[in-house]
Amino acid sequence: MGRLAARLWIALSYPLRRLAEYVDTLRKMSAPPHRSRATGRVTLNDVAQAAGVSPITVSRALRGERAVDPELVARVQAAVQRLGYVPDPAARALASRHSSHVAVLIPMLSNALFVDLLEAVQRTLRPAGYQTLIGVTHYDASEEEQLLREQLQHRPAGMLVTGLDRGVATRQLITQSGVPCVHVMETSQVPGVYSVGFSQTEAGAAMTRHLLERGRRRIAFAGAQLDPRVLQRLDGWRHELGQAGLHDPKLEWLNPAPSSLALGGRMFEQIIAMKPAVDAIFFCNDDLAQGALMAALRLRVPVPKRVAVAGFNDLTGSDQMLPALTTVRTPRAEIGSAAAGMLLSLMRGEPVARPGVDLGYELVVRESS
Amino acid sequence: MGRLAARLWIALSYPLRRLAEYVDTLRKMSAPPHRSRATGRVTLNDVAQAAGVSPITVSRALRGERAVDPELVARVQAAVQRLGYVPDPAARALASRHSSHVAVLIPMLSNALFVDLLEAVQRTLRPAGYQTLIGVTHYDASEEEQLLREQLQHRPAGMLVTGLDRGVATRQLITQSGVPCVHVMETSQVPGVYSVGFSQTEAGAAMTRHLLERGRRRIAFAGAQLDPRVLQRLDGWRHELGQAGLHDPKLEWLNPAPSSLALGGRMFEQIIAMKPAVDAIFFCNDDLAQGALMAALRLRVPVPKRVAVAGFNDLTGSDQMLPALTTVRTPRAEIGSAAAGMLLSLMRGEPVARPGVDLGYELVVRESS
DNA sequence: CTGAAAGCGCTTACAG
DNA sequence: CTGAAAGCGCTTACAG
């Protein structure tokens, strides 16, 4: 704009604006009647009017964001009470670009382990106003990635995923989304990775050491599903037996099928039949071990006399078996609470003291070993 | 307005409007630079521009709503592909007043029954573009109501709830929300109530008849949790024994604690100790019965010789017991699929042929009876 | 069959 | 510490 034009504009801009507003008012008076799409819902505006403040102040007062005059806060809260106002999550999500959802990705709901984890997670997240969106991956990497994509569309406020083992593409999906993410069940010291879990490898080694200490020498490892955590337990077993000079690859009994009582029973039968010298079997999960104990009863194989049986996770029922099952108690409820707590901090933008938390495990020696 | 004024207005309204628009343009030219809050996300508008149609047409083409020229649909879809457009659920929810969430209320995740139900529900709903929001009520009516309120704030597109038994307030909450709702596990012929399940009472009666047919006369009923469905099974048991003139209220062994293997074991011990004449025990859930079978092994009580044991639901592991457990197989996966399918119809506004679906049950006679 | 306008109910970015 | 304006990305209601 030239100088003259600029001056002209400055001189005219105010009157023109007022004129525009006036004409606009006239136009609206002649406009068709208000087309209401109101839901009948009490909105933030209603609260603002009732409290005699602006909508932004209500918004800030309710979220506790920035400083708001305590007196206004009180007035707002009174109005909220009186009108029974509940914020609309969709509007909030659209405006803020964050929903109140937390995506939780777990491998399988039929493994009681994850049910316990989930319970603890929800118990922490719900009171904080977050809804959990559960995705079951069925131990399938591509299904996990697919679920992740779907969940991220909903712009979750945070996410919880099981384990650390995933492809580059999936890891990038998580990183690039910018959504705070905590990994559970395993633990890592890699910078920028948040995790709560324990060392599956060490736990596997600890159980193997226990069996060695009991004088067992031919200790088989029976694993199903073969997810990363099972393989880590296998590593622990390998390592301890290697140290003791007792590692025999023929005693690795691996089956990619999902673990179950029935599969455990079958594995037990096979191991007993094909490796008669085996004097202990370490099952990667309690349901397998429970099935093995039932099979032992059926086949009249004395446990632990002829063969010791050990499990992992201390699932419900293991203490009821005959003989009661020796196992490793894993702190999944504690993991769930701690991970949810860490995620809460991340979502609030608070710093997290320890990004990699190791909650340990506990050897539970009962009668079967 | 007087006549003259009206005429004047009509004469002036068009020029005034044009003037307003013009002045508005000038104002905007002098307005501060565009304050962008854009997310970088590909929006429906981008698709519309790329396809050379209006945003509404894109919206309609994507939702398959109303008739859209097939050629335009093709152009829109090509643009969607090219740009990698994904609709924003929050914006959609805000504008349409319906989210793509389905709220699912179940009593307990630690009961494998509901895990199977949930799996089936998700398998049906996910491909249709719905996310399941799981709420665990812990068999607590007030917790259920609380969850319901929270979920309804999110304006779910539909909901699935367990059972039919709830207070007036909660029922009204559901009705007044206008959200389509299907009830699972029980079935009802009440008009306006959608349900998929089976008759718990009949199933309880059927198991009792089976035990009677096997010559049992002193049949105990051992129930835990005491939720409505357990009480219906109890009713079935009462009815059959009453018919046979064999009903003895002292053989009702009821405990409000959650069912578990350990509790089943304790109940078995107590019944055997206090009611030595009992020749059969019908447990309201398989986990109890499994615990009872373990206790029988421990106590060396021969099953079924001395006492028959029966369970309910045919949970995982029941076929692995020693002796294998006689039970009632409940079609929870089928219930989940059918209920989700029915809900899908309701959410689409399609008519539902049969609002009350009975999927039956199956007696599974194994060795324990 | 298609579109321009308005609106859903919040929050962000800017200004004071 | 507070607010007016604009905007988030869709769909509804109306009109043609």
Key words describing this protein structure:
6-stranded parallel sheet; elongated; 12 strands; 4-stranded parallel sheet; Rossmann fold; alpha/beta; DNA-binding; homodimer; 434 Repressor (Amino-terminal Domain)
How is this structure best described in words?
The structure is a homodimer of 369-residue chains. Chain A has 369 residues and is α/β, with parallel strands linked by helices. The first copy, chain A, has three domains: 2-94, Orthogonal Bundle (434 Repressor (Amino-terminal Domain)), CATH 1.10.260.40; 97-198 and 333-360, Rossmann fold, CATH 3.40.50; 200-329, Response regulator (Rossmann fold). The first copy, chain A, is 48% helix and 14% strand. Chain A is built from 13 helices and twelve strands. In chain A, the strands form three sheets. The first copy, chain A, has a six-stranded parallel beta sheet with strand order 2-1-3-4-5-11, with helices on both faces. Chain A has a four-stranded parallel beta sheet with strand order 7-6-8-9, sandwiched between helices. Chain A has a two-stranded antiparallel sheet with strand order 10-12. The longest helix of chain A has 28 residues, at 3-30. The structure holds a DNA duplex (16 and 16 nucleotides).
